[in-house]
């Protein structure tokens, strides 16, 4: 592969590997060794002179910055901007090109930094005669190391009812709540119990709040907030008869769906009720948040899935997903796909950006719960059995990836973040099941850190509070702030036009390439195109004629060469 | 079957002892970082609010003068030395770090019009109405703070009244302005050359720091005149609507200067094209008395008769910041120190004040992390600068009541004028009344 990079260029450029789509690790290492060898030969480390601050040591990897196109696409939030179409003014064009260069550099850096990620994701591959869904948890536990083996465990709690499960965002703390009132919070990795108590009432849902120091329990009448030691901190009387809870982490909003058909958003940092909305269909079967845009989706017994935002009193979107009741829905972490399970034994995959159904699977029996892991594994509970499907969004899948049979009906299902674990709450307690390849292997310590120390937790809490996104910014499109508000600009300019003493500005509101053309201009263009096409044809013909002529000439030459007259030719016999 | 389950060894992710730093593993994948724009916007809002919270520009004052401080002079090579001249002829040399007067000299019998320090900084010149005196920087002791009558190194007497003076950057020439513009050599008692254009006196004259033979002067016939000391005649002049009080050259652009005008505005001109100003800077509500450039050449500070100091960017028409105090009366001189960090202002109530050039800047040594945090905040503020909330917070300044009132009145008057112009335009044939650019409005003519 040629390296188009200039040697020692200060403008670092990341070159897309056009020949192959993936970066072959072996190739990469071979290449680096070559370069380092040559680098060493060239005496890479230069002596820094005293006081010479600006001289930088030569980077031996300077010419080897190849990153595959997919990776660059992953980190590229927006397509590369062409500053020529953005503005016609030289001064601003220069500025824009400089900014764009910097942006491309940072994209390249981020894509290349993937090399530094320490962990690789898990996998499960079956031998020839075996299928992956035939492999039991026992077999996995036997063939895996001790620490991973201990991650599969069973909590036998048969007296206090079917259990709800909630893992904290960093995948470290587990909260289980039994319907008869048993609530327990623990660190499931070290099996250290944080608190355990009985609320003496029915528990309908549980959820961790922004830090593992607080959690919310939806009890019979109201929602209560408890400390990690089990002390009751708040009783939220404004949330009456709640049976579904969720927490919007970046907005500090606790969302609850109550029996009387209301969804309410409560700001946990300030203790204020931000908004309430009355559902059209008062009964709901599931409530989940879309992690991409913090919109709450509710599934209803009439087959619809509604989407709610705290800024609107009515539902933002209403989709008819199934012909009969929807049992559960789940979103993937990037907010691109939604999976919905209906009573009609169907599992549908929706592209939630375009609201189109991508796949439709049919299950053995009526599904009850649904969850999507960080790496897009879908877990469905069908009666006693939990089935996991791998990579079922883009292309259809025939068989499940894994299957796990329990003794009792499943009451809750949740994948653990950053771990290859699925937590199943059922009538007799809680089971933790190993699903290789479900967890994201590399976490970002500044977002959710499984190894969070108390001092780090305090820092993160403060930073999260400072960066708390105001609830007014929740909308279907989360990146509205980054786009140009053309409407209000147009309005402003029109207002200014009415004021006569200001000279009307000559600003082009649309980028040059997107200019609309009038009918007559279009016609002229078409005419020109036709003319050009005719001319092109003629040129082609001319060229082909010329080529033929040339060929003929060459042939003639060959022939003439063959039939060149020689002095002694007259003595040859004449051939007819 | 082949199995691999995610198992992390906590040794890789947790620190060994409490004296180590915490291990922070990063993953920049966008799926782990939702709501990027919103969080960044919130951070930008926080940055702007903190910027306003920490905006405390006033640092200290140097008092000791017993009469109005008329002029200030920076030492070209020593950052902590400042020379100030008062209306009773007193000159004081200050140490800015200790904020103490190093030496006081009873220099002149009249108002000290101007003080200049040449590039080598071994002595300085001061001028009052008729004499130019040369003083040395040595021989000062901290004990005496009263003005002593130290004899000057040299005295030059002028035959005509002097209003201002400047010194050439690399040659031992002084130029004084008054009834006529005189070019002096440091040791000669007679001026080398005299320039005169008409019968008007020149109020202020400044040498170009880059093209060292050029100088610009403001005359009382409301014009700005350009001289070249290599020639015997003045070069050019541009006549404005009102008189210019003071002029400053841009230390980075060789041909750009800013003139502080009586009509509450500052005009930045390109010397090569005096037909139109490069930029008109409007924000003062009263006459602008003094102007000085920042050593970066991108901003300048102006002090005006309305008791405020404003900082403008060279390309912007409005001020970036405004400093005022109840105790500060009419400004007489402002300077921007050569390390781009402080402003020094001299005013009518005999006080010299030191201000921060960047009001919320943390002074002193900043650790690398601190500096990166500040840089990040600055970049965020620049990125989201056009959002209405951000603009509102960043623009918010408390300004004395009399200025608010004056600005309101001014706005009304200008609004009335423009409305009339608009009506004229509407009720006449379209195209007959053209638009006049703000940058050429105040220029009456250009003459050679």
From TrEMBL, chain A:
InterPro entries documented for this protein: BING4_C_dom, WD40/YVTN_repeat-like_dom_sf, WD40_repeat_CS, WD40_repeat_dom_sf, WD40_rpt, WDR46/Utp7
Residue span of region Disordered: 541-576
UniProt biased composition (Basic residues): 546-559
GO biological process, one term: maturation of SSU-rRNA from tricistronic rRNA transcript (SSU-rRNA, 5.8S rRNA, LSU-rRNA)
Domain BING4 C-terminal: 400-478
Stored Gene3D superfamilies: YVTN repeat-like/Quinoprotein amine dehydrogenase (2.130.10.10)
Annotated keywords: Nucleus, Repeat, rRNA processing, WD repeat
Signal sequence residues: none
Compartment list: Nucleus, Nucleolus
Biased composition (Basic and acidic residues): 566-576
WD repeat windows: 319-360
Domain of life: Eukaryota
Keyword Coiled coil among record annotations: no
Any GO CC annotation of this UniProt entry: small-subunit processome
Protein's recorded name: BING4 C-terminal domain-containing protein
Species, as recorded: Oppiella nova
Organismal lineage: Eukaryota, Metazoa, Ecdysozoa, Arthropoda, Chelicerata
From TrEMBL, chain B:
Gene Ontology annotations of biological process type: maturation of SSU-rRNA from tricistronic rRNA transcript (SSU-rRNA, 5.8S rRNA, LSU-rRNA); protein ubiquitination
Residue ranges occupied by any Sof1-like protein domain in the UniProt entry: 357-443
Compartments it resides in: Nucleus, Nucleolus
Keyword terms, alphabetized: Nucleus, Repeat, Ribonucleoprotein, WD repeat
Region annotated Disordered, chain positions: 419-448
Basic and acidic residues bias (residue ranges): 436-448
Main location, first listed in the record: nucleus
Cited SUPFAM superfamilies: WD40 repeat-like
Cross-referenced Pfam families: Sof1, WD40
Residues in WD repeats: 62-104, 281-322, 324-356
One of the record's GO cellular component terms: small-subunit processome
SMART domains hit by this protein: WD40
Family of this protein: Belongs to the WD repeat DCAF13/WDSOF1 family.
PANTHER family: DDB1- AND CUL4-ASSOCIATED FACTOR 13, U3 SMALL NUCLEOLAR RNA U3 SNORNA ASSOCIATED PROTEIN
Protein name as catalogued: DDB1- and CUL4-associated factor 13
Classification of source organism: Eukaryota, Metazoa, Ecdysozoa, Arthropoda, Chelicerata
